[in-house]
Q: What sequence folds into this?
């Protein structure tokens, strides 16, 4: 992986808040120049300004990464501004509530387009350029521990994160087989203290909440409360991001920052090979 960020050009999607913002600031602190994308242009501009105040270059690009033509615009602005690219961080992600019988159909599309399609689109635009350049480049796809194991809650989130991990694994293998000078890693955190509980705030207009009664139901409100609780009780953001940069000093594909899931992942492999069923946390630590 890239160890020296000095004067590297780094593109981060969903970089106005949370994990994306912290990763962008971490790259800038290490000497990189940034492209700060977010669906909220004014918030992206604030982060870009913060980076310019640190003495680095930064340009903000308002774009909805669930749309291919908007991803192409991020690529075009990167080329117009810097002429090349070194690192792509696909971070933008959203979540929606509802089991398979109750989820509002548009939310399956929204979450899939942001969490999975955006990775297809962004890598589709940036990898040919990286290959053409030939210098050492890097892609970090922010997925989730939800891309490696599942719980019964929020199946749309788990299924999209699994798809994003699979896309990353397959692309990683292809990059190696074709001798591309491009490293690829997936970051799969557990809960981190961000404002991801405000995920509905990031809906593009075409997926704004409609009059479906599920959105105003007691159950939706309870999902929201639980989501806020698990995020608020997650790991603190800054130390997690420092661990990501430490992990990027190695050539590991998987970046995992929440040790408490290690045994679940390890034992899941055994459950699968033994043809049992998906593992649950209770298999590891039975409820009293
Ligand atoms: N916070 C956690 O506990 C956690 C855990 C595992 C994985 N993740 C993943 O980390 C990533 C970042 O999450 P976070 O916690 O920082 O969330 P966040 O909600 O704080 O930040 C997400 C950012 O993405 C932007 N965004 C959303 N949709 C977009 C779109 N269509 N186009 C461009 N930008 C868009 C938002 O405006 C926001 O700035 C996500 O992919 C998320 O799934 C988060």
A:
């Amino acid at each position: 992986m890239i160890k020296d960020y000095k004067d590297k050009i780094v593109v981060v999607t969903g970089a106005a808040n949370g994990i994306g913002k912290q990763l962008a600031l971490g790259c800038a602190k290490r000497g990189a120049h940034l492209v700060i994308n977010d669906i909220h242009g004014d918030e992206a501009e604030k982060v870009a300004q913060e980076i310019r105040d640190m003495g680095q270059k930064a340009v903000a690009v308002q774009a909805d990464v669930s749309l291919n033509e908007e991803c192409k615009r991020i690529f075009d602005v990167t080329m117009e501004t810097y002429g090349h690219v070194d690192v792509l961080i696909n971070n933008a992600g959203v979540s929606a509530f509802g089991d398979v019988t109750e989820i509002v159909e548009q939310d399956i599309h929204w979450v899939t387009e942001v969490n999975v399609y955006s990775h297809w689109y962004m890598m589709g635009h940036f990898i040919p350029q990286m290959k053409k350049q030939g210098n050492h480049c890097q892609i970090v796809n922010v997925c989730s521990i939800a891309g490696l194991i599942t719980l019964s809650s929020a199946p749309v989130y788990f299924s999209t994160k699994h798809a994003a991990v699979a896309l990353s694994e397959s692309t990683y293998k292809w990059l190696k087989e074709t001798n591309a000078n491009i490293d690829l890693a997936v970051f799969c955190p557990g809960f981190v203290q961000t404002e991801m509980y405000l995920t509905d705030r990031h809906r593009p207009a075409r997926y704004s909440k409609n009059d479906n009664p599920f959105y105003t139901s007691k159950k939706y409100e309870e999902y929201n409360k639980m989501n806020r609780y698990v995020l608020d009780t997650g790991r603190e953001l800054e130390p997690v991001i420092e661990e990501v940069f430490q992990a990027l000093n190695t050539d590991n594909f998987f970046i995992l920052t929440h040790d408490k899931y290690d045994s679940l992942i390890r034992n899941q492999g055994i459950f699968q090979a033994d043809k049992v069923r998906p593992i649950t946390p209770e298999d590891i630590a039975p409820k009293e």
